[in-house]
Amino acid sequence: MSEAHSAEEVQKHVRMYMYIFGTLLVMTAVTVAVSYLNLSIVPALVVALVVATFKGTLVARYFMHLSGEKPIIFQFLILTAVFLVFMFILFIWALSDQRGVASYVS
Amino acid sequence: MEIPYTVHPRPDTGVTNAKVGIWLFLASEIMLFGGLFSAYIFLRMGAPEWPGTTMSGHYYASASDILSVPLAALNTVILIASSVTIVLAWASLMTNNFSKYRIYMGLTILMSFGFLIVKSIEYSTKFEHGLFPSESTFLAIYFVMTGLHAIHVIGGIVVNAYLLGPGAKMWKTNPTQYTNRIEVAGLYWHFVDIVWIFLFPTIYLI
Q1: Which pLDDT belongs to residue B115?
Q2: A positions 64-103 inside 8 Å of B (CB)
Q3: Residue B128 near residue B181, CB atoms below 8 Å
């Protein structure tokens, strides 16, 4: 996005960076506060990952300028996401496969 | 041989070659950390207890009993702030303000060292209590993931320090290419920030 931005546009970006910074700090405080509620594992995991995903999206969208990025970058990221999901599925598949676990534990 | 399309976008991709390069590198990094996160979930779901009942004679009921949440939260704030300063460094170059750029890039490097200092305090406290990677599966995956992340922080410091020091000569000869370099270095640094944003809750808080 470097070439096409005027000084005025950059100043607007700078204001946005400050809002995002404030939001990220608030969300970090929320993450820590929720951890003190001693939720059971599933709701704790859901809250933590939802907040982390929201924070990560803000960083990617605004600081990494993904919102105005060219299609080729999104093509890279979509392909990476497909491989990532496939890898997660392999791990979950392995978890559900309990063959041999009993003999290993004993 | 000079690398083409470092200043102006390549017509077919619409972006500079440096940007294509960094995003491909970041894609490989996503798979690297994704593999470790998968391993973490696999180990955790398969473990009868997490982090483990006793280590070095002490009972630990949760990860936050072993790890320091305040120190990790402080490191989260430091990394987020450094992400802001590096993007402000780039914005300063976009408005031709080199002296402001130097301040923001200097702050980014300072905060990176701050992150490593906090991390070393955390590690040394663990070692003093006999909590080594070999003690439990939890400690093994904790040291591997945070250690690999810390190596990435060191890599970022090296690149950013070069760009602020000897690499800054390019600002006089080719300011557009130099600004693109800072943007690319910033993309890497934001990725390091995002990895920590996910590491903090999954390892320290849950």
Answers
A1: 98
A2: 64, 69-73, 76-77, 79-80, 83-84, 87-88, 90-92, 94-95
A3: no
Query: Where exactly are the structural domains of chain A?
Result: 1-69, 70-106
A25 touches chain B (CB under 8 A): yes
- Pick from A49, A57, A37: nearest CA to B202: A49
| pLDDT for the residue A2 | 46
- Please, are residues A2 and B176 in contact by the beta-carbon 8 Å criterion? yes
Q: Which residue ranges make up each domain of chain B?
A: 86-206
Spatial CB neighbours of B197, under 8 Å, sequence gap ≥ 6: A52, A55, A56, A59, B76, B79, B80
CA torsion angle B126 B129 B134 B139 (round to 10): -40
CATH number of B86-206: 1.20.120.80
Distance from CA of B166 to the nearest CA of A (A): 22
Token match 């993309």: residue? B187
- The predicted complex's ipTM stands at 0.93
Note the pLDDT of residue B206. Answer: 83
| A23 has pLDDT over 60 | yes
Per-residue pLDDT tens for B39-77?
998 888 888 888 876 766 777 878 888 999 999 999 999
Dist CA A60 CA B190 (whole Å)? 7
Subunit contact A31:B205, Cβ cutoff 8 A: yes
